[in-house]
């Protein structure tokens, strides 16, 4: 076991990289340095993914044999809600305690286990999984063991093979996002994540008219772009790992910040499609099914509320892992480098706010038609503005709590050289 623990001996909390190149930027004072990505961060992430694959495979077999094959019985619900889901939520914190992980990016990777297990288990109990994935235990393991959205053939009930052109396209996307996030994160770190002076603290949780100020909206938009680049980079790399096995996958992000024509399209078809699919089958459809007798409008509203509430609670759990602090060990206080405590329920409030805007659009959006012929970039920017006043409830913790800075260790990074 000590061998496994040694894989995380490098805590990746201090950016002590040596510069590859020192240069000056015209119009800016001082010298700047370019730093290469540290491979240790990516090595640790790969190991975490492999560990979780092991647990997810075990859970998949249990769920298939005891829940899917007994769907609708009291036993299936007891196993799902009473055993599988609590155990999946317990395991990540035990692993964090065992490995003593401090880098926020690695901590978040440990928290993805419940994301898959909990929602896959809920959809198994309520019969809302895609029908093709339950044809055999082997097929279900493939589906259950990853959040990646494969392209399934309904007739053969197998995954579609990927083409060489799709592999090349995926590599180009990864290169683009890796470069974009490296440059944009370098800039945001340089300005301390606030390009414009603002009275709104990044990790604040309150309502005031200042949330509509120009400076706050600009800062919020810049953080939204950074979050998009960070998530897209991580998920594209995850998808690429599955593609290397020879199977085609769905796109993760479909240019959500710049091409969305509605709030529903933004959240439902363009932003983080992998998690959207998890929430659709594990929260939206079960709730909609439960309220089917109440009419289409009520069942849709309840499904939407359940999906955004589940997303909020999922992120609350993930934040608990990201900012997890260790207690005392053998009578000595364990280091709490970069310790940070986010405000509870802030993320849930953020997602419920967006559920409300989506419901308003659903019921009244058809009366707003004046921008139908406007360019998608303009429409998308206006739609994003509906979330920006409170988007720091999500992004602010990553800026102040150190997640973005910890992620930067695995990227190309440009930093101003501090002179004595």
Could you give a quick summary of the protein structure above?
Helix content is 60%, strand content 5%. With 420 residues, it is mostly helical.
Task: Write a structural description.
Strand 3 and strand 4 form a beta hairpin. Helices cover 60% and strands 5% of the residues. The longest helix is centred in the middle third of the chain and has 30 residues, at 214-243. The chain is globular. A 3-stranded antiparallel β-sheet has the order 1-2-7. Strands 3-4 form a two-stranded antiparallel ribbon. The chain has a two-stranded antiparallel ribbon with strand order 5-6. The chain is mainly α and 420 residues long. The protein has 16 helices and 7 strands.
In the sheet with the most strands, the strands line up as 1-2-7
Could you give the order of the helices and strands?
Answer: HEEHHHHHEEHHHHHHEEHHHHE
Shape: globular
Give the uncertain stretches in residue-range form: 330-337
Number of strands: 7
Q: Radius of gyration, rounded?
A: 22 Å
Distance between the termini: 45 Å
Largest sheet: 3 strands, antiparallel
Helical stretch tally: 16
Helix- and strand-based class? mainly alpha
Helix proportion range: 55-70%
């Amino acid at each position: 076991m000590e061998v496994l623990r040694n894989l995380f001996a490098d805590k990746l909390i201090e950016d002590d990289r040596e510069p590859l190149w020192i240069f000056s930027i015209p119009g800016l004072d001082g010298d700047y340095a370019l730093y290469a990505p540290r491979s240790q961060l990516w090595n640790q992430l790969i190991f975490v993914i492999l560990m979780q694959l092991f647990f997810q495979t075990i859970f998949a077999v249990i769920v298939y044999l005891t829940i899917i094959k007994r769907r609708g019985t009291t036993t299936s619900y007891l196993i799902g809600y009473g055993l599988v889901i609590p155990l999946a939520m317990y395991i990540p914190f035990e692993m964090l305690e065992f490995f003593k992980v401090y880098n926020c990016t690695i901590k978040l990777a440990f928290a993805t286990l419940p994301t898959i297990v909990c929602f896959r288990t809920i959809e198994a109990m309520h019969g809302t999984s895609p029908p093709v994935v339950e044809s055999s235990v082997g097929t279900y393991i493939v589906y259950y063991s990853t959040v990646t959205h494969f392209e399934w053939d309904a007739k053969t009930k197998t995954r579609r093979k990927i083409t060489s052109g799709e592999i090349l396209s995926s590599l180009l996307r990864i290169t683009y996002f890796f470069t974009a996030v490296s440059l944009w994160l370098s800039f945001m770190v340089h300005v301390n994540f606030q390009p414009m002076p603002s009275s709104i603290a990044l990790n604040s949780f309150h309502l005031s008219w200042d949330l509509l100020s120009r400076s706050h909206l600009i800062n919020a938009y810049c953080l939204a772009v950074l979050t998009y680049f960070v998530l897209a980079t991580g998920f594209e790399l995850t998808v690429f790992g599955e593609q290397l096995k020879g199977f085609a996958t769905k796109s993760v992000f479909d240019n959500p910040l710049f091409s969305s024509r509605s709030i529903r399209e933004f959240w439902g078809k363009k932003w983080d499609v992998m998690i959207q699919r998890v929430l659709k089958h594990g929260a939206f459809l079960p709730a909609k099914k439960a309220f089917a007798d109440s009419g289409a409008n009520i069942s849709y509203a309840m499904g939407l509320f359940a999906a955004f509430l589940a997303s909020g609670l999922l992120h609350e759990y993930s934040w608990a892992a990201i900012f997890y602090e260790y207690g005392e060990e053998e009578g000595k206080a364990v280091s709490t480098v970069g310790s940070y405590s986010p405000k509870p329920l802030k993320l849930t409030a953020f997602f419920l706010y967006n559920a409300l805007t989506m419901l308003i659009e659903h019921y009244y959006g058809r009366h707003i038609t004046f921008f139908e012929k406007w360019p998608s970039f303009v429409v998308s920017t206006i739609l994003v503005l509906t979330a920006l006043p409170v988007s720091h409830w999500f992004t602010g913790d990553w800026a102040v709590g150190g997640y973005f800075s910890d992620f930067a260790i695995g990227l190309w990074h440009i930093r101003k050289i501090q002179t004595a």
